[in-house]
């Protein structure tokens, strides 16, 4: 349900973001269009005003309104032909109107100060009157006879302003429609995009502990989601494998603990049925002690792995002579190897290393006992020491025996993993529960080393690589 809620939130957010982005882009685009058109309109008005003012000044220079009145007016009409919504005022130095077009009274358009500014700066100004707007320009011409004429020209802006207003409204409507369409389109697109994802989520939600063997078919999802489905199926496979080994481990632990508990219960019941001598009680107590030690070792191994999982294993670093330590271990196993006439062959040498002697000893003992278990009678277990570099040493423990298939090798150090599920468990070793080699790997990892296995028809080889010095700050 949480995934569905998150999906719904995302399904709403994305269209909203697309809608906002569309609004933003269209607004910027419409502002650019409106601003450009307004700029062009102003430029056209100014150009038109300047053109008319220049033409009027030229005519004033050629024809005096007092002496050549008819020619002057006739030429003015020709100048103004083709100019729509254009208004002209010509005033002499006495304030008398020489010429004017029909339209607003331009003589009162601007205060004297602003009017003089237009003439001196050769600029234009906006004049609003009676709900109409005009752009005004002006000039002053001094003739040879001393006469002075002032020209005021205005062009109407109402049509331009109306067009700009219509353009602005149209662009606003276009933005609103586009945003709605973008929102609807995004929702539809996300709906069809999310549809296979929602189906996939529903299939995933149906998976529980009892259906870890279920796999989602890649044929039921779009091609772009195949890699996701494959990754999820691989995760399910790993989870199923872990839970399967966990179940096997639980069964193994129950079996291993049931055996000593059954023995303890049986022996105790037998003892209680009849009176026993002190010696008989002593023997039974010794027998019970062995069973307690087995359970204690099993629990210790589990606690050790729990510490390794929580990175709580802190090695007590001391100087270790691997050759001497392994030699003593070989002597320790002589009573067991003598029964099968198995011999040890220790070769090579290497420098001393820093490490936890108890931990490393436990790891090597687990590997050697594992080698003895799978070595046939009258065979030799070979142990080789070598110096790979000034900072790294290598230990190889090889035992002859049946080849381990290559697909088992990467999993040998996995907890609860067995190559042969039906093999007999040795109650004398914690590896019988499938955690002996897991303990070995956790110890080697704690020492910043590396361990792996090679196997062929000749032998199976456990290869350990260890640094000679471990930095204390890493722990």
TrEMBL record:
Chemical reaction(s) catalysed: ATP + protein L-histidine = ADP + protein N-phospho-L-histidine
Ranges for domain Histidine kinase: 252-470
PROSITE patterns associated with the record: HAMP, HIS_KIN
Gene Ontology cellular component list: plasma membrane
Keyword Transmembrane helix set for record: yes
Main localization of the protein described in the UniProt heading: membrane
Superkingdom classification of source: Bacteria
Transmembrane segments: 12-33, 171-192
Residue ranges annotated for the HAMP domain, each copy included: 191-244
EC number: 2.7.13.3
Keywords: ATP-binding, Cell inner membrane, Cell membrane, Kinase, Membrane, Nucleotide-binding, Phosphoprotein, Transferase, Transmembrane, Transmembrane helix, Two-component regulatory system
An annotated Gene Ontology molecular function: ATP binding
Membrane topology per record: Multi-pass membrane protein
Described purpose of this protein according to its UniProt entry: Member of a two-component regulatory system.
Protein name: Sensor protein
């Amino acid at each position: 349900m949480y995934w569905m809620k998150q999906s719904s939130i995302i399904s709403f957010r994305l269209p909203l973001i697309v809608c906002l982005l569309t609004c933003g882009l269209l607004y910027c685009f419409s502002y650019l269009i409106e601003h450009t058109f307004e700029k062009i309109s102003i430029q056209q008005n100014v150009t038109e005003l300047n053109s008319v003012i220049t033409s009027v000044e030229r005519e004033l220079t050629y024809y005096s309104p007092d002496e050549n009145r008819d020619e002057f007016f006739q030429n003015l009409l020709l100048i103004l032909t083709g100019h729509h919504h254009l208004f002209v005022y010509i005033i002499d130095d006495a304030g008398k109107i020489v010429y004017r077009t029909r339209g607003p009274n331009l003589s009162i358009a601007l205060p004297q100060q602003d009017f003089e500014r237009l003439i001196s700066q050769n600029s234009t100004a906006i004049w609003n009157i009676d709900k109409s707007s005009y752009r005004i320009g002006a000039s002053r011409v001094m003739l040879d006879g001393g006469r002075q004429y002032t020209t005021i020209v205005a062009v109407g802006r109402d049509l331009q302003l109306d067009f700009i207003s219509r353009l602005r409204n149209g662009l606003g409507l276009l933005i609103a429609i586009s945003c709605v369409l973008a929102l609807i389109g995004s929702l539809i697109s996300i709906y069809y995009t999310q549809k296979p994802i929602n189906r996939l989520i529903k299939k995933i939600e149906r998976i529980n502990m009892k259906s870890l063997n279920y796999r989602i078919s890649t044929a039921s999802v779009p091609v772009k989601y195949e890699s996701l489905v494959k990754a999820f199926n691989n995760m399910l496979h790993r989870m199923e494998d872990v839970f399967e080994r966990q179940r096997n481990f639980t069964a193994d632990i129950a079996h291993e603990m049931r055996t000593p508990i059954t023995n303890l219960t049986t022996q105790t019941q037998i003892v209680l049925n009849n009176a026993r001598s002190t010696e008989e009680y002593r023997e039974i107590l010794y027998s019970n002690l062995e069973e307690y030690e087995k359970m204690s070792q099993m629990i210790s191994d589990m606690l050790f792995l729990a510490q390794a999982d929580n990175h709580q294993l802190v090695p007590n670093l001391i100087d270790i002579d691997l050759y001497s330590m392994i030699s003593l271990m070989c002597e320790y196993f002589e009573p067991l190897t003598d029964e099968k006439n198995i011999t040890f062959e220790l070769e090579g040498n290497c420098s001393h290393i820093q490490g936890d002697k108890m931990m490393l000893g436990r790891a090597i003992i687990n590997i050697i006992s594992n080698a003895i278990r799978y070595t046939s009678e009258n065979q030799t277990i070979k142990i080789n020491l070598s110096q790979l570099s000034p900072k790294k040493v290598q230990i190889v423990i090889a035992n002859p025996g049946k080849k381990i298939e290559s697909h088992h090798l990467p999993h040998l150090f996995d907890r609860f993993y067995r190559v042969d599920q039906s093999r007999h468990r040795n109650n004398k070793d914690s590896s019988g529960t499938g955690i002996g080699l897991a303990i070995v790997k956790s110890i080697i990892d704690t020492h910043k080393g590396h361990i792996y296995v090679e196997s062929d028809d000749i032998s199976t080889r456990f290869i350990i690589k260890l640094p000679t010095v471990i930095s204390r700050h890493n722990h």
